[in-house]
Design brief:
Domain RES: 59-202
Number of strands: 10
Strand order of the largest sheet: 1-7-8-9-5
Structural class: alpha+beta
Shape: globular
Strand content: 15-25%
Radius of gyration: 17 Å
Organism: Brevibacterium casei
Protein name: RES domain-containing protein
InterPro entries: RES_dom
Length: 232
């Protein structure tokens, strides 16, 4: 039986990093019935999220969701993003795919999925729990990224601790693509937004629907690089 994920140390003094204002990141997300914009945080209030509740956490992803300290308590909205297209895909569409899985992925799986760019509207202070920075807390580098989905609930305590410490988010290494970094940001509730929608650039892609036309063609080519077939 795998050992439990370590609890956050008290006091919590991680290595820190800064996502500067103007930095552009990528995210893959579903706008949902409310048609969320790329720079909108996931509120964590859907029925699917609520169905996962365990005490005061909702383990749908690594690091989210958790309840705030208000009365009554509500989930803290989150936004996942990465500077890497590959990480954005692996951390969302492909995060549960086993390495030996040879099944083709149906096109419907990507319906309504958006690949979008967002730009930081202000400097964002993040707790770095990535790789060697975990040594700052006397923890193995993969303490929080090696556990699978059955251990998400244990990683969420770290997110809550970082949020309570005033961090805007967490920087970590992608479990599925260790060559890249991922971020989870917390909605601060401030009047000044954390992100704005970025215009598509020459170096990064943006698609309104990864199951449609150019979006699917781009995605299928990217998946083929990893030996994954996308059904037409």
């Amino acid at each position: 039986m795998a050992r439990p994920v370590a609890t956050p140390p008290d006091p919590f003094r991680p290595a820190e990093d800064l996502v500067p204002a103007g930095a552009v990141l990528l995210r893959v997300y579903s706008p949902g019935p409310t048609n969320r914009a790329p720079n909108d945080f996931n509120p964590g209030t859907s029925l699917a999220v609520r169905a996962t509740q365990r005490d005061d956490v909702f383990p749908v992803s690594r690091f989210s969701f958790f309840l705030d300290d208000a009365e009554p308590a509500r989930p803290v909205p989150t936004l996942y993003a990465s500077p890497s297209e590959n990480v954005a895909l692996w951390e969302t569409l492909l995060r549960d795919r086993a390495p030996d899985d040879t099944d083709a992925l149906p096109r419907v799986l990507f319906r309504g999925r958006v690949l979008a760019q967002v730009r930081a509207s202000r400097d964002l202070r993040v707790a770095s729990l990535a790789g060697a920075d975990m040594h700052t807390l006397n923890m193995p580098r993969d303490e929080l990224t090696s556990p699978g989905s059955n251990r998400y609930a244990e990683t969420i305590h770290w997110a809550r601790t970082a949020w309570r410490a005033g961090f805007d988010g967490i920087r970590y290494v992608s479990r599925r693509d260790p060559s890249g970094l991922a971020f989870v940001f917390f909605d601060s509730g401030q009047s000044a937004p954390s992100f704005e929608r970025a215009r598509p650039g020459d170096m990064l892609q943006s698609f309104d629907d990864l199951s449609d036309d150019g979006g699917f063609d781009w995605l299928a080519a990217r998946l083929a690089r990893w030996g994954i077939v996308a059904e037409l």
